[in-house]
Write a structure and sequence with these properties.
The structure is a homotrimer.
Chain A lengths: L11 H12 L6 E3 L6 H6 L6 H6 L3 H9 L23 H10 L8 H14 L10 H12 L6 H7 L2 E5 L9 H9 L5 E2 L5 H4 L6 H12 L6 H17 L4 E4 L11 H12 L5 H22 L2 E4 L3 E2 L4 H7 L7 E2 L9 H7 L7 E3 L5 H11 L5 E3 L9 H15 L17 H21 L5 H19 L3
Parallel strand pairs in A: 1-2, 2-3, 4-5, 5-8, 8-9
Antiparallel strand pairs in A: 6-7
Helix pairs in contact in A: 1-19, 6-19, 11-12, 13-14, 14-16, 17-18, 18-19, 19-20
Catalytic activity (chains A, B, C): aldehydo-D-galacturonate = keto-D-tagaturonate; D-glucuronate = D-fructuronate
Pfam families (chains A, B, C): UxaC
Pathway (chains A, B, C): Carbohydrate metabolism; pentose and glucuronate interconversion
């Protein structure tokens, strides 16, 4: 199923250039500076349970598509909220069959590409998945997963991962990261600081999270100064487990830069319960500026992932909880929203703020002009729904003429689907090489320069931008 | 003028694949589930009057372009409002000549493609239209139109139309549909329920429309319950003339889901005259949810066509009235606007809501993520200004990676220009085959799968989505 | 470095068509109807100082990119605000070297193309620029600039410029234009009327500007009627120096059409100091309608360049002032914003209003539908960040199917970078020929029509639209 020329432009001269560019970057180590794999996998190094548990149940790209066509989440084994009383399919093979029967739904999607890559490269499966081949697939994968070479660490090494970052809450004790470190295994798995649970007043359990945050740091996190000190301590703790970055998933890109007295008063309001929506928004925005201030001191790179309306489907949320495919992008402003932060720190050469978007209209209108001016700003790669050949193509089309390649930060896979990691990096490398090949054949770039740029996009820029 | 390879990608390998895909769908019957042809044509089966009356006078794509370059609507024979005292060109040949002289304005537009297709396939005209050939064109077409094989029913059959839907107001008595049915002709012409005149408080004559609605249904349409009952009765009446869908052309995609008491109060406010703009908007939004509720009972598929600022040009509107090319798209939100409707009915597997857009930025940001999640939601094809090769291409580019092909509903022509129907379906088939061919040559889809998908997009999905 | 086929599509058949189309327009005279070159150059006809002063210091495309990667503006010799006390690099060769060392940053940008075109065609430099070749470049260019054939008028003639417009404030005495006229040189350099300094209440020194405006015109510019009379006089004065157009650079596209009493009251408010932001916006909008009214009398073509958030970076603005690369586009509405102006004058066939955008989402959604309807409206070419092959391609892709080619106005370079002018027109011609070639090979346009259209886009439409 995996053709060696997949994703390269059809025109033969361009394809030949793309192929040459790709050959030199295909086998570069994987630098995965941002993602959501579970550190427990690398810590415990247990076998993955079965094909459905590995591929279907945890992957919102998959179950959202099946759900959109009438397949119930119960029938896919998606775990419901505790206490919901919902009974789910227990038979993993049946789940796998349901998925296989609906394989045609994924035509033209990146999920299809990622999975075919994993099926063929990991399990030697090269007949198309279908209702007919479902059992053969299931048995082949299930059998393989029992072998030691399919355990997490073995796959990590086989994938050629040089470094991978996971993402943890400040309330996480990083026990799995500690266990990895103490295990003597030399795979480089680092954490990243994602403080949403203690920064976003709308986060479920925000008040309780603040108490726990205080306990962990021995600070009075119900005072503004104690709260900030707690962040500083916790960032240091995360740094001691390799963290080089923070990550912020806010509903908008709003930032604020209040005076100390105003910030203190705001903090009191948001910690007193019944937070007004505009206060919650203002506080999140103020905290981005506070995080940038701390980054000026401790050198952590900031990532901002804004613009998702989380849990758009309340019925589904009530039954199954967070991250069940019902997060929908919304229009996102950057030019006004980021101004307070940029007014304060945008001209700093030693600070790196990496901004992502789910609103592609911002690429050429706002993000490329901003990143092509402010020293502190860089553009994250095509994200989430746009982590696909077309999405990547639009990212380059809409940012390069204004911001060039060097205000972008290479690729990150941003995934919790471990076996898809090599496929995702492969798609990114092929897509970037295809884009560069078109610049070469239209005589805008020499092939030598394209080789250098391809290498930068596949490897160097991610390492540099994330200080790895 | 019609090259057999038109619209296929230039790259030879891709073109060859596109051609093979197209060959198998080129002659499939036309399913036209949504449009605006006049049922009277099929009922009376009279000859079309003359070339100008058939092609120029009723086609807003044509006269808007001529108008934009300084040609007066009077000189194109466009009928003014009753009582306006405006004198228009009576000589149909002169109108045709004006159009022919300005043919270069249509370079690069779909209008050009549709017309050339009709000129050549229907009338054998294959020399370019120009001031020089205007009379030859006129005479050839005028001559042909007198023949029986150019009457509406003969063309319907020649076009290979399996089924066509027209669009009528609830106040329409469907007399032409009755006449078609009683004629014994077996062409399948069905109606669709477009209740804007009795749903939109800003619609001209809304109050009078409600009275007439009451008379037709024998319900007290000035009470909320009577009003809803009238809709139910009228929907049933439309169903008896084949309707399988409703259609809603609102200025925005706003929906609402009020409690009964609130809805009743709102209904009283909008029926008391002097409706506040926000009440009108709220009422239209509430009615989308009411229509969905009725669809749960009677199975009619809902279509939402939002986002057009109607009658942008008041001078023109005063002189010529509705639908004169001065409808301009505006920015349209879906993610928040559709939420009340989706909160209530989005998870229903037996309901189909087909959403269209005139704001292409919503494709990848909002519509594909929504349709790729909610079981009730499907995406209508590229609409109106975007019913063209480039527009169709962007539709697939921007929706497929997130929503796949199977959350879309195939093509509908949405036209009042009868002779353009085969051309429009042909352009859609060629465009989709070209898109699929690129997936094949970049090794993302097998050619077998592409054949199946091409068939689905050209035929099956429209039948299924519209329950035809 | 300059390949004869650069920017043409890679596919050989399409490339061959593009080449044939381009051959016939490559050497057409340059019509430059809108730009920002300094009329003093043509008036005094002095040699350009040195390579850094010619290419680096005044070009915000260049220093913004270098700044975004941490190069200080001081180190690029960018002049600070008077009295800032900032010391800048005085050694022009060092500035040039810094630029050359960072040449890779411009990969994929139009700046790279423009500069390579100038380097090779003007100075015979065809080895890639780099740290290594920096001095050779510097010396070669510096040597050439001393020669008479590199003086402004000689370059003007060598570039094949038939006519070029500069852009001046109503407060400008047009002395350089006078000097050009009196010099007997027959290069056609005309001015354009850009009244922002006396129209925009937020413009620095607005009140003082009004006084000066009064002195220049001998009108009482603190009365509404005197102020309007001053505009009329000054427009006439500009016309006497060849002006055929006005230009308006507003933060939004908002227009207004107030009654005289309201307009007078508004004028009193904005001239009394402490103008409220909404009054400033309303006044700018009202003045667009006033300008249109004057254009109805004096025939000047209006240009509207809206949607830039100027001076987004206050730190930089405080230190270096205006136009230092910190202007960032923002979302721009047209459909509602232009309505008051279009309600009043949109149906006029003798008025031409050329609208530009920095928000590409408006192309297909708002601008093409508006320009494809209103006789007075035309679309300006891809502007600023979008004056690049990809940007131009999107402009045609997103406007042609709705507005055709003939509601656009050809190309304008809009630049202050004199040596880049031939390159910019060359890129535009190559881009348009490539777009047309694709229409030809996909059988949507005959090659004869494409030749005619290419000529129109390269030459005729600009002359006609700008009445040159």
């Amino acid at each position: 199923m995996l053709h060696p020329d997949r994703l390269f432009p059809a025109e033969p001269t361009t394809r030949a250039v793309a192929r040459r560019l790709y050959e030199r970057v295909a086998d570069l180590p994987i630098v995965s500076p941002h993602g959501h794999t579970d550190p427990r996998w690398y810590a415990e190094n247990e076998s993955f349970a079965d094909p459905a548990t590995l591929f279907v149940v945890p992957d919102h790209y998959i179950f959202r598509m099946l759900y959109s066509q009438g397949v119930a989440l119960e029938d896919l084994g998606v775990p419901p909220r505790a206490g919901s009383g919902i009974r789910i399919e227990a038979d993993r093979r049946k789940i796998w069959r349901r998925f296989a029967e609906n394989w045609h739904l994924f035509r033209g999607t990146p999920t299809r590409m990622w999975l075919e890559h994993a099926f063929e490269t990991l399990f030697g499966l090269d007949a198309p998945l279908s209702a007919k081949t479902a059992d053969f697939y299931y048995d082949t994968i299930a059998e393989a997963l029992k072998k030691p070479e399919f355990r997490p660490r073995a796959l990590f090494e086989r994938f050629g991962i040089e470094v991978i970052a996971t993402t943890e809450s400040p309330l996480d004790d990083l026990r799995w990261h500690r266990m990895i470190r103490e295990s003597g295994w030399n795979g480089r798995v680092i954490t990243a600081y994602r403080p949403d649970p203690v920064v976003d007043p709308d986060y479920a359990g925000f008040r309780d999270n603040l108490s726990r945050f205080g306990e962990l740091t021995d600070e009075d996190t119900l005072t503004w100064s104690g709260y900030l000190a707690a962040h500083r301590k916790r960032r240091d703790y995360f740094k001691s487990f390799g963290a080089t970055s923070t990550d912020h998933g806010h509903p908008s890109a709003a930032t604020a830069d209040l005076g100390t007295a105003e910030a203190e008063a705001l903090f009191r309001r948001v910690t007193n319960g019944n937070t007004a929506p505009e206060d919650a928004e203002l506080f999140r925005g103020q905290m981005l500026t506070e995080m940038a201030r701390m980054s000026m001191d401790d050198g952590l790179v900031m990532q901002i992932h804004p613009g998702s309306v989380r849990n758009h489907n309340p019925t589904l949320f009530d039954r199954f909880g967070l991250d069940k495919g019902a997060d929908i992008p919304a229009r996102t402003d950057y030019v006004h929203a980021l101004k307070p932060l940029l007014d304060r720190f945008g001209n700093e050469r030693d600070l790196t703020i990496i901004v992502f978007t789910l609103d592609e209209t911002a690429y050429s209108r706002e993000l490329a002009p901003l990143a092509g001016h402010y020293p502190a700003l860089r553009l994250g790669p095509a994200w989430w729904f746009f982590d696909a050949p077309g999405g990547m193509r639009r990212f380059r089309d809409l940012t390069t003429e204004t911001a060039g390649f060097y205000n972008t930060v290479g690729f990150n896979d941003d995934t919790r689907a471990f076996p898809s990691i090599p496929a995702r990096h492969d798609v990114a490398r092929r897509s970037d090489c295809s884009f560069l090949a078109e610049l070469v054949v239209t005589h805008r770039l020499s092939e030598d320069e394209a080789h250098e740029t391809a290498h930068d996009l596949a490897y160097r820029l991610a390492k540099e931008a994330y200080r790895l």
